[in-house]
Every structure is written in structure tokens, then in C-alpha cells.
Amino acid sequence: MVELNTNTGIVETKHFTFANPPTGLLLESGKSLGPITLAYETYGKLNLQKSNAVLVLHALSGDAHAAGFHNGDKHPGWWDPLIGPEKGIDTNKYFVICSNVIGGCRGSTGPSSTNPRTNRPYGIDFPIVTIGDMVNAQKHLIDHLGIEKLLTVTGGSMGGMQVLEWMVTYPDRIHSAIPIATTMKHTPQQIAFNEVGRQSIMADPNWKRGDYYGSSTPTKGLAVARMVGHITYMSDVSMAEKFGRRFKTSKEPSKFGAEFEVEGYLQYRGNNFVKRFDANSYLYITKAIDYFNILNGKKLSDIFKGLDAKVLVIAFKSDWLYPPYQSREITKACKLAGVDATYCEVNSTYGHDAFLLEVEEETHLIAHFLRRISNHN
Fold first, then answer.
1. Under 8 Å CB-to-CB from 375, ≥6 apart: which residues?
2. Which of 8, 54, 67, 120 is 20 to 30 Å from 264 by CA-CA measure?
């Protein structure tokens, strides 16, 4: 029996810069931003017809590093179990692209980038960006790569919102779409969780109205924001299975230190997050998510009118951050517009994190869907 090599191997992050002044990229806010750099990675090879490109879109805290290893890394990219040779998104067949969003802090232009007008970090002088702006920037990257039409666009959570934006704004540039664990617009509850995170950052005395670069950063506030967010990514069942009401083996001296395992875990996640993410980027990206609304006054039947693409919508039963009913609404909107759409609800206990963890189910669904799309085209 021949052992298959399913390792993507060592990969490097690339950078694409565009929108140089005085032109810039016109944002939905009416402001102009430029120059803009997008950090991106690619896996697999683009075929001669340039017809096998898959655009992978990341969630709130993700980045361009979706698969493989960087030199010296112990851990692979955030969706490595799904992307690579012989995996769900098979890099022997498909050319996979993943870019970091504008407003981020992982190589793309964002609040921590240098403002060419002042030669200092933008901070909160950075303009408000939307999911639409992120997708418009990605479209420039796809043009730069010489790809006329993507085989598919896919992503979970905020990545799924970007998929929906591609479906609405650039329907003629995609053959198919796979929005996962996402929504067409945030509910008041979803906005409320993000607002608690933002307030915790801005209440940190080290935030200094966003002008903290080169000095102490608002790590406490950002850590709390991440803790709140992480609670929404899990489910009651997954938390009970992972932690129960168990106490930590070593208790802290403070009366209100982390005694329960779940407390220690949340603190660990928060403290790790601040090492790789910028607080101002967290503010900007959560705002972009909250502003997102592809309904925007339209009737449900009109949103995807004229979209000639096949759509696979995936949801997870225990996801209470983006409950399955929101994915069913996406499917309904597709059906009302005459779009070929399939809805799959995975019976998982992992909560919202399932889109990163239910690899076996996603592999089966996505690989089958991509085969069907490839054969059709």
C-alpha cells in the first residue's frame, strides 16, 4: 500500500501592494485608502486554463496562513486539516488562495500600519472598513493573479460573510460558493457580544484612544475581549465535556484567581491571543462584522437574483453564535432567487468552533461539491 503525502509542507507568505496614491481604494465610507498591502498565501498550482482557483476566506482572528508550515513553526495553518494533497480541498487538483483582510494586523494594511501622511501608525485615524471593502481588496488580488473566474469561494464565520459578499458584488467572478456557519446580518445579540469586547479594550488605560504603539499595549482589555468571544465559539455541551466543574491542580493565591479549569483555560486563550493580535484591529474588524447586512432593505428573494453559481451552505447544530436558522435563511434566499443551493446541517457538539474542528464531515461535503462543480465546468 502506497502511503499518501497529505502534507502541504513549508509555505511562505507573499505580499501584494496596490491602490497607490493619489488613486487609492474608494471605501464604502466614502474615504480613500492607499497604498494597500495584502498578505496572502497560495497552495497547489494554477492550471493553464486558470479554472481551478479556490479562494479561502478567514474568520475574525484568522490570517493568510491557512495551511502548511512556516519555517520553524510547530503548528500548521488554521485550516490545514482541510487544505492539502488528498484533503477536502485537494491541492493536487486546486489552486488555493488565502489573503489576510484589510483592517487586520497579520501582514495586510490596518490600524497598526504606517500612515504615509504622518509616518506613524494609523491608530484610530485608520478609516472604517466593511466586509465589502475587504472583498473589493481581494478582487484586486484575484485580478493581479490573472484569474477571471474562481472555481469557488469558501470560509466560515466572518469568512462566510465575505463569501456572501462575493455572491452579491461579484457574481460573474465565481462558479460556486460555500458559506459556512455564517449569517446575512448580525442580530442585536451578536452585536452585543462584540460591543462588550470593544468596551473592554477601550476601558484598558493602555488603549490611549488607540495611540499605544511603541508603548504599553492594552493587553488586559484585549485578553478579556478574546475570553468573551471564545465563550461564544464553544457550546454548553463542549464546555461540560472539556472542563466540567473540575478545579485546577494548582490554585492561585488570590481569592478571585482562576480556580476552575474553565477559568484557567479562558485566561490562557486570552493571554495567548494578545501575543499575535492588535487591539485596534479587533475594534475595526468587529465593527465591520456588525455593519455587515446584505439584505440592506432588499426583499429576501432579490438578494441573489441573477447569480449563476452553485451554492453549498453548511451549518452546525450546536452553533449558538451563528445558529443554523441563519444558514437556512441564506439557503431560502438562494432558492427564492432560483439559485442551485444545497443546505447541510452537521450534528456537532463543538458549537461555532465546529467549522474548524469537524474536518471529516466538511471534507466529505466540500470534496464532493468541488468534484461536481469541476465536472460541470
1. none
2. 67
Instruction: Return the active site residues.
Output: 157, 319, 352
Closest CA to 367 of 85, 62, 64, 42: 85
What CA–CA distance (Å, rounded) separates 279 from 292? Answer: 20
List of long-range contacts for 320-323, beta carbons under 8 Å, 24+ apart: 320/232, 320/235, 320/351, 320/352, 321/157, 321/190, 321/193, 321/232, 321/233, 321/351, 321/352, 322/157, 322/160, 322/181, 322/182, 322/183, 322/190, 322/352
Rounded Cα distance, 304 and 330, in Å: 10
Residues 83-104 have pLDDT tens digits of 999 999 999 999 999 999 999 9
Q: 303 and 337 in contact (C-beta within 8 Å)?
A: yes
For helices 188-202 and 279-291, give the axis angle rounded to 10 degrees: 160
Backbone angles phi, psi at 96, to 5 degrees: -100, 135
pLDDT digits (tens, 9 = 90+) for 187-208: 999 999 999 999 999 999 999 9
Look at residue 306 and tell me whether its pLDDT is greater than 80. yes
145: Cβ contacts below 8 Å, ≥ 6 apart: 46, 53, 97
What count of other Cβ atoms lies within 10 Å of the Cβ of residue 366? 23
Joined grid coordinates for residue 301: 428573494
Distance from C-alpha of 111 to C-alpha of 129, rounded to nearest angstrom: 11
User: Which residues have C-beta within 8 Å of that of residue 44, sequence separation ≥ 6?
Assistant: 52, 90, 91, 92, 93, 94, 95, 96
Strand stretches in the chain, DSSP E: 14-18, 25-26, 32-33, 36-43, 53-57, 83-84, 89-90, 95-99, 114-115, 120-121, 152-156, 176-180, 310-316, 341-346
Query: Has this prediction a pTM greater than 0.85?
Result: yes
pLDDT of residue 248: 85
Domain-wise residue ranges, the chain: 14-187+294-376, 190-288
How far CA 296 is from CA of 60, 162, 180, 186, in Å, comes to: 22, 15, 21, 12
Give CATH for domain 190-288: 1.10.1740.110
